[in-house]
Write a structure and sequence with these properties.
Number of domains: 1
Strand content: 15-25%
CATH class: Alpha Beta
Structural class: alpha/beta
CATH superfamily: NADP-dependent oxidoreductase domain
Number of helices: 11
Radius of gyration: 18 Å
CATH topology: TIM Barrel
Distance between the termini: 31 Å
Largest sheet: 8 strands, parallel
Mean pLDDT: 97
Number of strands: 12
Shape: globular
């Protein structure tokens, strides 16, 4: 599987990411099996978070045999110094690692949170301490909102951005366009989520996948075009498949069928993507 450099982190990571949420509610043996599948297929980047149920506790033992081959990222949803330090130390212990290659502010959603993060006794103080102590090697953030991302990117400490890069959200609503331009200017790596997002689950619809939205599981052409769309946007380093093992395996299968590389989508496939996007109603969009 192809590797790309994640901005100024200089980490050479796989174009498909192993998301920690994949093993939420898994037992240790099942988590180990999926971790082995990921490594065997060239995936070397893992993105975890303490908010993903028991995932970090089963991921720790599962990843331990491969730690020297992997780049491990985690996150904190805490915005103050004390809470974020506690969460960082617990995540290090759970994931059985002495350091994180990347540590991120998780799900930053508004200006008030940004002010708290960078204010007195804010989480940024923990991040600075962790850098000095060697507990984290790079700092990044995750968000779903253009304006929030643009504000976070004014802080030079940010080396990565985890953000939705989806064909419909991007082409119809413009989501991710300006932040990715800013990331390129500042050499900030982009970790893309929602590449295989279809739409919201509709009322009364059976939620058959472990995702908070309906993933593209029922249209192979659409899934392949959507994943390739995301991975061929300039500035995108890697894509995190939806939080269901079947979708992770599908993403790996698509890339493996292309000799480990993303492919520029054809004109016909782009039309196919946009035809699907234009059929979505306003209530189908997540953001």
């Amino acid at each position: 599987m192809d590797k790309r450099i994640l901005g100024k982190t200089n980490l050479s990571i796989s174009i498909i990411t192993f998301g920690g949420i994949l093993v939420e509610n898994y037992d240790a043996s099942k988590a180990a099996e999926l971790a082995a599948f990921a490594v065997d297929n060239g995936v070397n980047y893992v993105d975890s978070a303490p908010s993903y149920g028991n995932s970090q506790y089963v991921l720790g033992p599962a990843l331990q045999p491969y730690r020297k081959k992997l780049f491990i990222a985690s996150k904190t949803g805490e915005r103050d110094k004390e809470g974020s330090k506690k969460e960082l130390l617990e995540s290090l212990k759970a994931l059985k690692t002495d350091y994180f290659d990347l540590y991120q502010f998780h799900g930053v959603s508004d200006k008030d949170e940004i002010e708290q993060i960078f204010g007195s006794n804010g989480a940024m103080e923990t991040f600075h301490w962790a850098l000095k102590e060697g507990l984290v090697r790079n700092i990044g953030f995750t968000s779903h909102f253009n304006a929030v991302a643009m504000e976070m990117l004014t802080h030079d400490e940010m080396k990565s951005m985890l953000f939705p890069v989806n064909f419909a959200l991007r082409e119809i609503k413009g989501l991710s366009k300006d932040p990715i331009i800013k990331c390129k200017e500042k050499d900030v790596g982009v970790v893309a989520i929602n590449s295989l997002l279809d739409r919201k689950w509709r009322k009364g619809e059976e939620e058959t996948y472990h995702c908070w939205y309906k993933p593209i599981y029922d249209d192979p052409r659409l899934a392949k075009a959507a994943l390739n769309y995301t991975l061929t946007r300039e500035g995108v380093t890697t894509a995190v498949p939806p939080g269901d093992e079947r979708m992770f395996r599908l993403a790996v299968k698509i890339i493996s069928s292309q000799e480990g590389s993303p492919k520029e989508i054809s004109g016909d496939d782009f039309v196919y993507l946009m035809h699907h996007a234009n059929r979505l109603g306003i209530d189908d969009f997540l953001f």
